[in-house]
Amino acid sequence: MSSTVDHERSATLFWELEPVVAENMERHLAVVRDWNPHDYVPWSQGRDFALLGGEDWRPEDTRIDPAARASLIVNLLTEDNLPAYHHNLMTALGSGGAWGEWVYRWTAEEARHAITLRDYLVVTRAVDPVDLEKRRMQFTSSGGAGEPVELLPNVVYTAFQELATRLSHRNTGSATGCPIGEQLLARIAADENLHMLFYRNLVGSALELAPDETMEAIRDVVRDFEMPGAGQPGFRRFATMIANAGIYDLRLHHDKVIMPILRHWQIFERADFTARGEAAREDLAAFLRKLDAQAGRFTERRAERSAAARR
Predict the structure, then answer these.
(1) DSSP readout, 160-183?
(2) 255 within a domain of the structure (yes/no)
(3) pLDDT for 169-211, tens place per residue?
């Protein structure tokens, strides 16, 4: 994904936005709730594996629906790739001042998610831990991360990605049928929501400072958006299962992720764009019409398949 913001303008925006970063960091710390990963894991359900004289995982150990299990794996591996995301944020936002303080705080909070999800999945034997570790090694060794490393595209992408992740975690928790899993994923989703608010506010300020350049970044990010776990082994098969189960699909992506943030930024009501920004907004509107139509076709076909299966 490329940005049309020149390097000189990007450097200026970096300094212009730093007070906004500091303000939102202060707001975040005032409302965030620290929590302990160990509190959300049912340790009493755990038992040793074969190396320590117990039994290794068997398929019948899991009591979670296959689609929910696929979503749990995707969500965990996405969180596992934190080193790549941290590196990209440092590249895009830097390591000094308010920007650096935020990146390190964000990283520390995100690390809890992978810690707790893995403990929960291994203790409850919800997934094959050997397969999970192989997937983790393959994905994190690839160095892949979906977000761009330029300032404006990065903060725009992360605003959408955090909301998408929040939605995915909440819906996955509901799909597990496990009260403990649902509670854990709701806790993680609450973190993701606060992270989304941080980046959403940052982009809102960027729109005031550089409306045309920010509008172009929004168009590019929405048009090319991929979830950060897209490079995982078996992602497409898992994504299909997740979409067919209604955990995360095009309809939700359009209605619950893209459109709420665009409405918050008042993208289609703003009057501060030049011809350059207007062209980007028109491109975005055309893309959204296509996305909405694709989402409609997907939900119709899914409903038809569901009806046929019930016959």
Answers:
(1) HHHHHHHHHHHHHHHHH--HHHHH
(2) yes
(3) 999 999 999 999 999 999 999 999 999 999 999 999 999 999 9
Between CA 188 and CA 166 the distance in angstroms is 8
Return the exposure string of 206-228: e unless at least 16 CB atoms fall within 10 Å of the residue's CB, then b.
bbeebbbbbbbbbbbbbeebebb
Residue count of the chain, please give it. Answer: 311
Q: Nearest CA to 228 among 81, 71, 70?
A: 81
User: How far from chain centre, in Å, is Cα 10?
Assistant: 25
Q: Is residue 193 part of a domain?
A: yes
Residue bearing tokens 């970063």:
21
In angstroms and rounded to an integer, the radius of gyration of the C-alpha atoms of the chain is 20
104-114: pLDDT as tens digits: 999 999 999 99
The torsion defined by the Cα of 84, 89, 90 and 91, in degrees rounded to 10, comes to 90
Q: How many folded domains does the chain comprise?
A: 1
Tell me the average pLDDT of the chain: 93
Assessment of whether the complete model's pTM goes beyond 0.90: yes
Nearest to 113 by CA among 55, 50, 67, 172: 172
Q: Give, in order, the Cα–Cα distances in Å from 79 to each of 57, 85, 89, 211, 281.
A: 23, 9, 15, 32, 32
Q: In angstroms, what CA-CA distances link 241 with 66, 120, 244, 245?
A: 8, 22, 5, 6
Q: Give the DSSP letter of residue 256.
A: I
Q: What number is the average pLDDT over the span 146-172?
A: 92
Residue 77: inside a domain: yes
Is 1 part of a structural domain of the chain?
Answer: no
Name the residue among 225, 206, 224 with its Cα closest to residue 267: 206
Name the residue among 8, 2, 128 with its Cα closest to residue 64. Answer: 128
Band of pLDDT at residue 5, cut at 50, 70 and 90: low
Instruction: For residue 80, give its domain range.
Output: 7-310
Specify the CATH number for the domain of residue 298.
1.10.620.20
